[in-house]
Amino acid sequence: MIRGWLIGIVALGISAQAEVPKGVPALLEAINGKQARVFLQGATPTTLSFTGVSSTMVNAIPVDRVARLVFFPEQDVEQLEQEVVQQTRRAHTLLEVLAPYEPYMAIPNTMQRLFLLQVNDWFVAGQDARAEAGAAQLLACTKEERMREHGLRYTLLLALRSGDLAEAKALIDGMSEGAMRQYFEAEITAVEAGAKAAMMQVTQLIAVHANEVDWLAPTELLAAQLYLEMGMTNSAVQTAHQVASIYQGSVMAMEAQSMMKQLDVDE
Amino acid sequence: MHGLLILLTILIALACKGYAERQTPAELLKDATLAMQEARLDEASALMYLYLGQVESSKAERVVQIAQDMRFKLATVLIQMKRLDEAAFLLESYTSLPFATQPRQALKMMATCFYEISDYASTVNAVSNALAYTSTQAVDALESEEMSGGDEEAPFTMEEKGALYLMQAEACMELQRWDGAVEAFEFVVEHAVDDQRKGYATMQLVNALIELHDFERITAWIPQLYRTDARYDIRVNLALLNAAAALYQAEEYASALPLYRMIIPKDELLVFQEEKLKALRIEAGLPPELGATMTADEMVLFGVSNESDVEAQVKDASSGLLVEKPKALVEHEELLNALREIPPYEIDVDYRMADLYRTVERYWESVAFFERVFEAVPESEIGERSAYEMVDVLLNELNETDEAEVRALAYMQSYPQGITPRQLAYMLNGYYQAQADMASVKELKPYLDDLKRTNSSIIIQYDAELYFMQAVADLVLLNYDEAEAGFKFVLETFPESHQTANSLYWYAMARLFLQNYADAWVDFTTYLERYPTEAYADECEFQVGVCLFGLERYDEAVERFSRVISVYRDSSVYPEACSMRGDIYGSRGWLDEAIADYERAIDAAKSVGQATYPTFQMAEVFEAEDRYDRIVSCVELYLDRWGADADIAKALFWIGKTKIQQKQMEEAIETYVDAIVTYGNDVQQEGVDLMVAELIKISRLYLDVEQQAGLKGLLREAISVAEGEALSLRLRVALANLEGEAIALGAQFIRELASFENASPPVLACICDASFDRNDFSRAEELLDLFVRQFSESDFMRAAFKLRTFGQMSVADYEGALETLEEAQENYGVEYDMAWTQLAKAEALLELDRFDEAYEANLGVLNVRAWRGAAVAQATYQLGLVEETRGEALKAFGFYQRTYFQYKGHAGGHWAAEAYMASARCLAALGLENDRRNTFRAMLFDPFVNQLAQADVAREILGAAEVAEIEAYIETGGVTNIAVEVDAARLRGAL
Hints:
The structure holds two protein chains of two kinds.
Chain A: H1 2-17, E1 24-30, E2 35-43, E3 47-52, E4 58-62, E5 66-71, H2 77-85, H3 95-98, H4 112-125, H5 128-139, H6 145-161, H7 165-172, H8 179-192, H9 195-208, H10 213-229, H11 233-246, H12 251-262
Antiparallel strand pairs in A: 1-2, 1-5, 2-3, 3-4
Helix pairs in contact in A: 4-5, 4-6, 5-6, 6-7, 6-8, 7-8, 8-9, 8-10, 9-10, 10-11, 10-12, 11-12
Chain B: H1 2-15, H2 17-22, H3 25-37, H4 41-55, H5 61-80, H6 84-96, H7 103-116, H8 120-132, H9 135-143, H10 158-174, H11 178-191, H12 195-211, H13 215-226, H14 234-249, H15 253-262, H16 266-283, H17 296-302, E1 314-315, E2 322-323, H18 327-341, H19 346-359, H20 363-376, H21 381-397, H22 401-414, H23 420-434, H24 438-443, H25 445-450, H26 457-476, H27 480-493, H28 500-513, H29 517-530, H30 537-550, H31 554-567, H32 573-587, H33 591-604, H34 608-624, H35 628-642, H36 648-661, H37 665-679, H38 686-702, H39 705-721, H40 725-739, H41 742-752, H42 761-773, H43 780-790, H44 797-810, H45 814-828, H46 835-847, H47 851-862, H48 870-885, H49 889-902, H50 910-925, H51 929-941, H52 949-958, H53 960-971, H54 984-990
Antiparallel strand pairs in B: 1-2
């Protein structure tokens, strides 16, 4: 009895001295299939730092060995995504939600889609500096090809927006032929040679790569923008409407909806 | 069916009666179980049937339980033996009897059996029952100790549910129960893990919704479908073709488009699926290719280690080998065969997409797809159609004229046969005509000429139309000769075509414009004979009158116009006929009748053009009668009716003229200057030019120095604030004319103006006069062309005619000069300042050695009262030239003498001086030297000429001493009576 009591006292003492762990709670899934609950401390392009649940010792793991990070935000992430996509919530309200997770966006994680929506919002709203930073993080997602491609797209579009054609061209230098490259070339042509020349490229892309759905989406969005530049508002609206419809839920659809809103057109 | 099964069972039981009588149920059970374990399925099933037959009437709980178990097992055996209908019947019994321990599985198996035997109605029921199997039976089973058979059967997994729903959905599709199919497929889509299945289910869902015409819901599903990889599924691809076509037919274009886009080209799909077939065959233990054996590599690749594992039992019709094919493999082969048998569809799909893109106003995409089709199959019907549509979109939707032209012309050149090149030409024609670009219409002619003719009626119709349009273009471009030839070509090449009547009319009109009145009259009359009720009948009647007018058959013209006025009261030619008849009456001095006709024309005018002419003709008549109050009222009426469309400047000109007559100079000047400033920037405003001319006249005739200065001040101020070049130039010309600096200004314009775009007629005339003054004929032709094309009615064109004529004369183009002169005289006749035309004509004729004509031409000057004065002096002199040139020195001398005797007071004595010199020349030719010298002497005594340059020649010939003597005599006030008379008798004596 006395022994039990002593153990209890010691336990109480230990628990009284225990600190609340700092860092971002996450479930770390490694590439070897193992999982661990951790508190993330930070990330560099090559290394992820974390502490264990019951230890304050900071460990580091090469980013390459991390398969995915699962985060546990208080909010319902799927709900948030839906609200942003349906435009019942502005993406800028996600700042607070995403803030703790931003340093880890280059690593595959469960908040990436929300982050993508945020970056898209920055881009559409003209907050170029933020968009550029966000795009850089997406571009660093070596394990998530789609995220990387989004990052590439935003980086190129921002370069074109700032008039830096050289940078835009450098981004596609060495890229293999295919729908992605042709899409980027069309974006560059739009700035360099004008809407009509770009439209020629866009229509060829649509005709030849009809099943490359991932790149048809931004291509058709570009088509809508080109129509607008050429003063063909009806055609622009029709195209934007189709982008919003066919690619529902995607960032391209959101950009199309934004365009229609600017044109004061009902969706 | 069930009856048959019962009968079968009874028969089996009867057949085995003998055996049954020897075995107990327990033995049967044991033997059946053993047979099943040893896969002797026939025997096992027979034994099981026997057992069930023996125990079916037993009510003992244990027996019933075992019987149920046996039923379930028998069902599984029957399923293995593909006796599915028996299995289904048995399972039905199983599920309806107590002690069924695996009811869900039984229901699932039953549903599967029904589906496999294509009993879709039963399938739907079975699946519904399976999915609905829940509480009642399970709870009852739990609560009842009797009924509970141990552990409750596990509920369906999500995968099982998915499979059941899929089966139900497919069955509903077969039964055309579309609502049921939609509901079931929705479940599958929502819960399917496999992307292919999800995509397939979505496709089928869309198909069901198409059948329901629920296009709103389709719109929601298509995006999901579009983003799956289901397109590589043959079934989906085949379904896409139909679904997209159905949506296209229903005009649901926005939904149809992504479906068409998903369709994989046949060859690509075949390659993909043939690889998949290989994999399926290997998986089934078969060689990858029909009839082939597996290589060692393929065995390793596809994981088959022992060829003897392949089961062989069913003869394959294709290869002759005995193979066993799994259902999935059979299905896949059937789908591949179906795909191979479909004719190539890519072209049709591309065409549909092009059409869809056009419908949804994505025109550039539309062009790209039409171009794809055309390039793939240029000579097919669909290719031809695509070529046409592509040009149509470029031209009429995108306004990309250059792009459209390049493609259309390239097509016409490469494919000159058939209807499509003609349709393209027709389309371009229509476009150019709408733009009033007739020059481009003409550029199509070489392509038309190269098109291959056929006897096809539709081709002939197109050709007739296209050539008709060519002739019309010539007409609009004022190329009347070409237009005449063009319409004639249509009449001769395409007789009895739909354009024959019209061609005849316009053929006649072209001849009319060429002033070939006689031939035009014949053609108009022919039209009326052949087509008395056709569209241009009224026009022809009128134009016949115009031809008669042109032929100076005025009585007949009046008769014809009267007929038109009487018969065609509502026609557009009515006011024109009234005006024309009014003109004839006016020329005859029947002013009241003329005015009545003009008033009729004004009342009936359907356009401002039809009202303008008679209004101002009437004003001219009123002016001739000094009825200025009537001028004001008719002009005001005209302005009231036609408002902003009226020729306001001309109207103001007449109002101002009235004010001048009423001696209201300041008001007139103010009216004119205001109107010039308001309308003067439009080069076509003829009224403004009239006002400029009138201002100059007012200034010269009516204004004192102070008033003139005031007017000049107004003009200077207007020039300083003028915004348009046309107005500024007009005002500068007006001012220069007032200041007598017009020639200098003209010279300045020649240096200043890079183009004459903003030069109105007075400005052009100023330039012409300045050029004439400098003997600069370099732009004479250009200036005359400009007048003819843009200001053919302008009075100021006479300056251009003069410049052009003398330009031609300066390069000895006398024939050309005669043509120009003829045109000038047609325009201006014998107006007071046009004497030069007749004189120049005479000069040109003389240069061409057409002596008689030259003679008559010079005489013509003498007959015109308005040309009395310097022109007569020159003409008389030129008569002498004519005679002299043809060697009639005596006659020439006569004319020369008359010139210096009668006309020395004109032209500053110039012609008299020339005549003196010419006389002397003639006398020398006649050998009358003394008379020659006397002529020179008379010249020096003649005060009209003795200070002119020609007199110096006389001085030189006479010599200083004699000249001094003459001059001294003149100074003393002496006059001479020297007269040289030469006649034929004297001349004979001299010779």
